[in-house]
């Protein structure tokens, strides 16, 4: 199937539909996605890169101060990318935390 159009902004959305048998005659499609995200923070280390299967819940945890490394420093979500599996998401997170990836993250803010 063709990929959905790229949304406005810097987000990339990749989705995979998995059939899940709800009953003998009914098939329900579930979308499984893993989000790689970059948060803008206050202070010396001003970016945070993370991966989550439930992006909305994870961002709320950051906002509420439930994450030690971002507690009291959360400003906004700078960038998100969605991947169809964990392996791809973790590979992207690893790259974003590398030297070239950090340069790219810095270029987002100018």
Structure write-up:
The chain has three helices and six strands. β2 and β3 form a beta hairpin. It is globular and about 35 Å long.
Q: What form results from the Cα inertia axes?
A: globular
How would you sum up the major sheet? 4 strands, mixed
Distance between the termini: 36 Å
- Helix proportion of residues, in percent? 25-40%
Proportion of residues in β-strands: 25-35%
Low-confidence stretches: 2-18
Rg (CA only): 16 Å
Summarize model confidence as the mean pLDDT.
79
**Structural class based on helices, strands and sheet pairing:** alpha+beta
Give the strand line-up of the largest sheet: 1-6-4-5
Tally of contiguous helical segments? 3
How do the SSEs run, as a string of H and E? Answer: EEEEEHEHH
Number of strands: 6
Topology:
Blueprint: E1 12-13, E2 16-21, E3 27-32, E4 34-41, E5 47-52, H1 55-64, E6 74-83, H2 86-96, H3 99-109
Parallel strand pairs: 1-6
Antiparallel strand pairs: 2-3, 4-5, 4-6
Key features?
globular; 110 residues; 6 strands; single chain; disordered N terminus; alpha+beta; two-stranded antiparallel sheet; four-stranded mixed sheet
Give a short summary of the structure.
This protein is α+β, with helices and mostly antiparallel strands. It is 29% helix and 35% strand. The N and C termini lie far apart (36 Å).
């Amino acid at each position: 199937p063709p990929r959905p159009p790229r949304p406005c902004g810097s987000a990339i959305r990749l989705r995979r539909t998995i059939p899940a048998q709800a009953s003998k005659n009914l098939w329900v499609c579930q979308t499984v996605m893993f989000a790689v995200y970059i948060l803008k923070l206050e202070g010396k280390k001003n970016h945070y890169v993370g991966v989550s299967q439930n992006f909305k819940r994870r961002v709320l945890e950051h906002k509420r101060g439930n994450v030690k490394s971002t507690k009291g420093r959360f400003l906004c979500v700078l960038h998100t990318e969605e991947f169809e599996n964990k392996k791809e998401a973790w590979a992207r997170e690893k790259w974003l935390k590398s030297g070239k990836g950090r340069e790219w993250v810095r270029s987002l803010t100018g």
